[in-house]
Specification:
The protein contains six helices and 62 strands. It has 734 residues and is mainly β. A 13-stranded parallel sheet has the order 1-2-5-23-28-31-35-39-42-45-48-51-53, with helices on one face. The longest helix is centred in the N-terminal third of the chain and has 16 residues. It is globular and about 90 Å long.
Length: 734
């Protein structure tokens, strides 16, 4: 038996010894080559194909172990490159050292000078320029000032103000749009007609932006253009009468021209001006085991906002479309933005080391049951909408259409939402086991990461949401107040999602400098339930570091986090807060370690907290309204308030106990944004005869930050008129 066995082993060994060269050759993928001006079907290095030619050639390769390498240069796509089931198993990559760009843009040439310093160019038929990029820099659609609701009064049917704004005298008001922001929503609707002082707007955009459609959640009725929360038109845009700043442009649909006012140093005879035209650049539809690596996606369009549909924002960059539709209070039939890259029903699709830039819509969408797919180590910058949309809005999809086990990791997301400021950086809908890990998100107008959907609507209370992980992300400078989008957070969730974890994230400056009492760190909104918030570092947020306000959002647990403020207890049944290190004015070493490790490169700068001299001081105020004592403004908690009674020259002050050289004072307005038009006085003597005074006009923010550079023991906030002083927090930094 031993002899026979030995003989078999020897034979097998000899057989295996003869295989390596053959196996190695079999393992080597078939390489096909594409180039920007490639043609034919050879697809060799010397005779490359077009990208569609390479796709077709790959389909003919047996075994389907194929790699398509794209040479350097710009691939101008008039239609998307579409990959279906027959394209499974193929890798699409940049050739070594190459930077291939899939572009949906069209260059605008033949610029001619106008007498007013602007330049104009004819636009080809079929092109409607909504964005313009000049030498790679985004131009701005010519825009005017805001128009308050007292003048621009919006109703279900239209808006007043055409005469007072001068719109009634514009040459072509029907090319212009109203841009409106109400809380977390954003609207862009084109003017359809002007009659006297009354403007009407394109349909169905205006109807879908107003209340009463019964196609949005009930809460939305308080955030529509005709609601009590509507305060103004942020601006009207795209009229030649508004073209007054360098870097602005306007589109004239009748003359089919773009007119641009150059920035300093720009020469229209030599610059490269591009407008996005092709909507999708790469569509992976029903394919599996596809890899896309090292490609750049640029100048993709998003056409819907330029049509009569307009942009009727609902939440997170999704819109309400269509003149009619089913009753829907859970957002099941909202429309995602167009994206440069779309994966539908994909399995094991990998997108890595990609660049998404200068886009009229979103970066990437994974939808219609895409599973086990990854978007990683890619860069998103200068996008009109959000970076990545993962999943769909149906709470109980068929198994084949359920999104599951997708990963978004090690990506960098900056300056997205450039046009549609309600868009979020990374959005996931009804997803299970989705991982959003080690991403860096910075300089965003609204929320950075949003996971879950459905609010508290009956049809959404049981869904496929579960076991998602939002971990180790670096989120800074989001919910930027200049964009006027409110009621969000650096990390935002919706819906019951058992097993979901939010951990190891560094959040700094979410809604910092806010004009209202909102803008959170981690926001467990509405029916967010069964979520663990653990080991995050959250600093300098405009409102609460963690918010769980709804009593129907249950079983949430915040444990072991580090933060410089505090928050009320979580509201939902069974929810808890424990072992959190709050009200810090210095981040300890373990918190710094977590913060430094977060993000795409794991070595991001951490903004250390500054010592607060007021924390140990003695606070007093001119009068006290109820229980709102002066000490509440120095308790290290931005969710508690001091408040005086109304009176002339009402004041609040803190005695630091000794004179210090002061570098900075932070004034955090109370939650009602009470304090306005005041002096900040810094003095060494209690009678303030030697005070250095800084006047603040208008409301204090959250916070108003004043650089001081003076010696003082006493810091006083004193009204220059009559009213109350209400403060959530006053910090005095040496």
């Amino acid at each position: 038996m031993r002899t026979a066995t030995a003989a078999l082993v020897t034979a097998a060994t000899l057989a295996l010894a003869s295989l390596p060269a053959t196996a190695e050759a079999a393992a080597a993928p078939k390489v096909l080559y594409a180039a920007p001006h490639g043609s034919g079907d050879a697809c060799t290095a010397g005779r490359p194909c077009s990208v569609t030619g390479a796709r077709d050639a790959a389909r003919a390769v047996s075994g389907r172990d194929v790699r398509v390498e794209l040479a350097d240069g710009t691939y101008a796509l008039r239609t998307p490159l579409t990959l279906g089931p027959d394209d499974s198993g193929v890798t699409w990559s940049a050739a070594p050292g190459a930077d291939p760009v899939l572009s949906g843009g069209r260059a605008l040439t033949g610029w001619s000078a106008n007498a007013d310093g602007t330049w104009s160019a004819k636009v080809p038929d079929g092109v409607t320029p909504r964005q313009l990029f000049v030498d790679g820099e985004r131009a701005v659609r010519a825009r005017g000032a805001s128009c308050a609701a007292a003048v621009c009064d919006a109703t279900k049917t239209g808006m007043t103000g055409a005469e007072k704004t001068g719109i009634a005298d514009w040459a072509r008001p029907t090319d212009a749009e109203a841009v409106i922001r109400v809380r977390w929503r954003n609207y862009h609707c084109r003017i359809a007609s002007v009659s006297g002082d009354l403007m009407t707007f394109a349909q169905p955009c205006w109807t879908n932006s107003a209340s009463g459609t019964d196609r949005t959640g009930p809460a939305w009725d308080s955030t529509t253009v005709d609601s009590s929360r509507y305060a103004k038109v942020a601006f009207f845009e795209n009229a030649p009468e508004l073209l007054d700043r360098p870097g602005e442009f306007v589109w004239d649909s009748a003359a089919r021209t773009v007119t641009y006012l150059p920035r300093a140093g720009e020469n229209p005879r030599r610059f490269h001006a591009v407008t996005p035209v092709t909507e999708n650049l790469l569509v992976v539809d029903g394919a599996h085991d596809v890899r896309v690596t090292g490609l750049t996606f640029a100048y993709a369009a998003y056409r819907q906002p330029s049509t009569d549909e307009g942009y009727a924002g609902t939440q997170a960059g999704l819109t309400l479309t269509g003149a009619t539709g089913p009753v829907d209070h859970a957002g099941r039939f909202y429309t995602k933005p167009a994206a440069a890259l779309t994966v539908r029903g994909g399995r094991h699709v990998v997108v890595d080391h990609a660049v998404f830039t200068r886009l009229g819509g979103a970066g990437a969408v994974f939808e219609h049951g895409t599973q086990d797919s990854t978007l990683t180590r890619s860069r998103f910058t200068d996008l009109s909408s959000g970076a990545a949309y993962i999943g769909d809005t149906e709470p109980q999809p068929e198994p084949a259409l359920a999104g599951a086990r997708n990963t978004v990791s090690y990506n960098t997301v900056r300056r997205t939402g450039a046009e549609y400021t309600d868009a979020v950086g990374i959005w996931a809908g009804y997803e299970a086991q989705t991982v959003i890990d080690h991403n860096t998100l910075d300089d965003l107008p609204y929320s950075a990461v949003s996971v879950g959907w459905g609010w508290n609507q009956p049809e959404a209370q049981r869904s496929v949401l579960r076991d998602n992980r939002i971990t180790n992300n670096r989120i800074t400078n989001v919910m930027r107040v200049e964009h006027e989008q409110h009621d969000g957070g650096a990390i935002y969730t919706q819906g019951a999602q058992p097993g979901t974890v939010i951990s190891g994230n560094y959040i700094n400056r979410s809604a910092y400098g806010n004009t209202e009492r909102d803008g959170n760190g981690v926001y467990l909104d509405e029916q967010s339930s069964h979520i663990a918030v653990t080991g995050n570092v959250i600093t300098r947020v405009g409102y609460k570091w963690v918010s769980n306000w709804a009593d129907y959002g249950i079983d949430n647990h915040a444990t072991g986090n580090w933060t410089d403020t505090d928050a009320p207890a979580l509201a939902g049944t069974g929810s808890t807060m424990s072992d959190n290190r709050t009200r810090l004015d210095t981040l300890p070493a373990e918190a710094l370690e977590v913060a430094e490790a977060a993000g795409a490169d794991g070595r991001g700068r951490v903004e250390q907290l500054r010592p607060d001299l007021a924390r140990t001081g003695t606070a007093t105020q001119s009068t006290t309204d109820g229980t709102n004592a002066a000490a509440r403004a120095v308790d290290g908690d931005t969710s508690t308030d001091s408040r005086t009674l109304a009176g002339a020259g009402a004041w609040w002050q803190v005695d630091l106990g000794a004179a210090h050289h002061l570098g900075q004072v932070e004034i955090w307005n109370d939650t009602s944004m009470t304090t306005a038009d005041f002096d900040v006085q810094l003095a060494t003597d209690a009678d303030f005869t030697d005070a250095t005074t800084v006047h603040v006009t208008g409301k204090a923010l959250r916070p108003t930050v004043l650089d001081t550079d003076t010696q003082a023991r006493y810091v006083r906030v004193r009204l220059t008129g009559t009213g109350r002083v209400g403060l959530a927090h006053v910090l005095v930094h040496p």
